[in-house]
Amino acid sequence: MELNVSWHDWKKILHMAVKTSDFIGMPDEQVNKIACWIGEFLAQKIDPGNSEQRLLNELWLEADDEDKRVLAKLIIRMVDKTTKM
């Protein structure tokens, strides 16, 4: 299955998810665990729809568990700071 979402829209979707988790008071560690679970699902089940997603997929597949936690945390930080609603 391919994920046909533009890079901008993908970041917007993640931004909304991060803001929702902030709103309900979810701890950062729990958000990161969920992000890792989603990252693993996407890497195993979804074909990247654009070059940015392809890069993230390749990084994810090369990463060990600690690298994946860091990558998920960086993605969360990126969408939280750079995506304007």
Total number of strands? 0
Give me the CATH architecture, please: Orthogonal Bundle
- CATH level 1 name: Mainly Alpha
Percentage of residues assigned to helices: over 70%
Protein traits:
Cytochrome Bc1 Complex, Chain D, domain 2, globular
Compact description:
The chain has a single domain (7-82), classed as Cytochrome Bc1 Complex, Chain D, domain 2, CATH 1.10.760.
What does this structure look like?
With 85 residues, the chain is mainly α. The protein has one domain (7-82): Cytochrome Bc1 Complex, Chain D, domain 2 (Orthogonal Bundle). The protein has helices at residues 7-23, 28-45, 51-62, 65-82. Helix 2 (28-45) crosses helix 3 and helix 2 (28-45) crosses helix 4. The longest helix has 18 residues, at 28-45. The mean pLDDT is 88.
Please write out the topology.
Blueprint: H1 7-23, H2 28-45, H3 51-62, H4 65-82
Helix pairs in contact: 2-3, 2-4
